[in-house]
Amino acid sequence: MKVLVTDPVADAGLDRLRDAGHEVETDYESEGDELLDAVTDANALIVRSGTEVTEAVFEAAPDLVIVGRAGIGVDNIDIDAATNHGVIVANAPDGNVRAAAEHTVAMTFAVARSIPQAHGRLVDGEWAKGEFLGTEVNNKTLAVVGLGRVGQEVAKRLDSLGTDLVVYDPYISEERAERLGAELVEDLHEALGRGDFATIHTPLLPETEGMVGEDELAQLEGGYLINCARGGIVDEEALAKAVDDGVLAGAALDSFAEEPLPADSPLLNVEEVVLTPHLGASTEAAQENVAVDTAEAVLAAFDDEPVLHSCSTAGSPRSRRPTRATSPRRTSTSSPRAR
Q1: What is the pTM of this model?
Q2: Which residues are designated catalytic?
Q3: Is it the case that residue 48 has pLDDT exceeding 80?
Q4: Could you tell me the pLDDT band of residue 325, with boundaries at 50, 70 and 90?
Q5: Which residues make beta-bridge pairs with 26?
């Protein structure tokens, strides 16, 4: 079987596939028609967030069994198209949870104590000891927006440091929140209004896109917003204005609506905003974990075994979809690759 890898993935996962006797081809540069040509004879496609897996990709790959996402978010994959073509989509939601949670906590402290700003002043030759007055997390309220895997881990860590927890997540039960020592509220505005800090941990979906805008930010008056989840959930222009105008004390972001972050982003011009280039899952352990988990999903799909963390509703792909011989290839000139 041929496995096409279009975004960098740790060797631990690729070696697992090679050791199982499969051909692994890496192609990190192709886009548009070149990508459609590359995937035409692939039985599996492994991606991270850099490849947009669109309807055109599925049409171009009649022998595709599975798309493996080496990470959590699958908003770059057309799940409906995958289901229609009988292709399994599987993500790796567990391997980078700890890394993402730790980065969120690190960003919380960085913005609360102005660590990057103080460092910058120091290396520029200024001993600005009296110009930075930080905020402690102890005895503060943390509003957690989205209590999934990462949200839970962040809540546990900051709870142990003395925060009170308020949770907004319409998909969880009150009992689940209580097990973490958190209070579940039914309204996003209420959660933000009670928070000194707010961390975002929701996927990017139609109902969450732009979920935190000017009105929501106003509820967090005097507080700090941290988003290490997905770009597009927070209105970045509104956030930059809220911090610049003093509505918020500061903000820290690791994910952006457009990546790389454009040079004209208003976030770059606000002193109290801390930014990192989507580093939440960038630890050696996390990258190896998601690579191996993705490889195991591919191997399971090749063997017609149950695939953990399947995100599409495709059943046994080889029993439900036509083969190359009976399904003529349709072509598209659209570019499925987003840089």
Answers
A1: 0.84
A2: 230, 259, 278
A3: yes
A4: very low
A5: 5
Residue pair 233/208 in contact by the 8 Å Cβ criterion: yes
- Cα separation, 180 vs 163, in Å, equals 12
What is the rounded CA–CA span in Å between residue 307 and residue 309?
Answer: 6
* CATH architecture assigned to 97-275: 3-Layer(aba) Sandwich (3.40)
Q: What is the pLDDT of residue 15?
A: 98
Cβ contact 231:176 at 8 Å: no
At 233-274, the pLDDT tens digits run 999 999 999 999 999 999 999 999 999 999 999 999 999 999
Contact (Cβ atoms closer than 8 angstroms) between residue 2 and residue 45: no
What is the architecture of the domain spanning 2-95+284-320? 3-Layer(aba) Sandwich (3.40)
Helices (H) and strands (E) in the chain, counts: 13, 12
Residue among 74, 101, 95, 97 nearest 294 (CA) = 95
CB-based contacts of 4: which residues, under 8 Å, 6+ apart? 25, 27, 38, 39, 42, 44, 45, 46
Strand order in the sheet with 2-5: 23-26, 2-5, 44-47, 66-69, 88-91
pLDDT at site 107: 98
Task: Decide if 61 contacts 38 (C-beta within 8 A).
Answer: no
